[in-house]
């Protein structure tokens, strides 16, 4: 398949859905790991093409959504300083902290800037030696290499006024934590394709061995997702559990060795708190000691943060796959993309934002079992 339309072909999608229907004999609960996959599932109605035996639940696979409230509040505290130029990707500006967001600080006069590459922040630090330039480094393993490169470059260029507020999170420890929880219902995973382009397959094999769950590394288009579901169901029905790569056009078994080496050089693994989930041991990256001169958390001493989360937001349960957005009484009412109560509504990859964008907040019936599946389109 050379062209994107081939991965959105309606006839091919229906054929895969029919194969899943023929294969499944009992109920199975499958979690897609990546928020981009969640967005595509809702956009294209993938969940409605599936037989009722297959329940897709949405995992904490959006880095914007799982960045802890404490980290957001630390970012806001640093950005509010008059000597700071605070740089971030645009999707973090509206994530609500305890007392507002970065966009509100910008409107109040703080120097908050959207950058399109972490290296832009490094160049800004070189151009403005009179100001402290801070880059908000968040994300899964996918965005960690360019963020590591920014810190590496700042050290090499001796830019003492550049620092990074690091809050990277790692996928395999999160999967371990979810599978080890007493209330876990997940029986198989659609693995995160873009993360695996960096990290490869090897980190997922211990999870398969420990919990005997299939993990099928999957892409983001409708055909990718349906193929991933089919391979997962085939494993579940046969009693197998293995790591399969259904995204071979992008993922190599070893990942990207040079990126992995860069991550090892700049970062070390640490415990990390996930918003709505809690502390997960060894689930994050922080800067190694030799890069601590560029560690914003150390430089600005913002550890003593008192947080206040919305009392009616259930994003934590949504991130853990326990509930879906339409189960929240505030969904589409008090909580909308214009007035978000939680990060799952702010991020374009958040489950709540995806459900809202494609009109599911307008539906009177929460369950979609038995509903007529929307026709797939080949339009981009």
TrEMBL record:
Gene3D superfamilies: 6.10.20.100, HypD, alpha/beta domain 2 (3.40.50.11740)
Single Gene Ontology MF annotation: 4 iron, 4 sulfur cluster binding
One Pfam entry name: HypD
Domain of life: Bacteria
GO biological process, one term: protein maturation
Keywords noted in UniProt: Iron, Metal-binding
Range of residues in the leader sequence: none
Family designation: Belongs to the HypD family.
Protein name listed in UniProt: Hydrogenase isoenzymes formation protein HypD
Gene it is expressed from: hypD
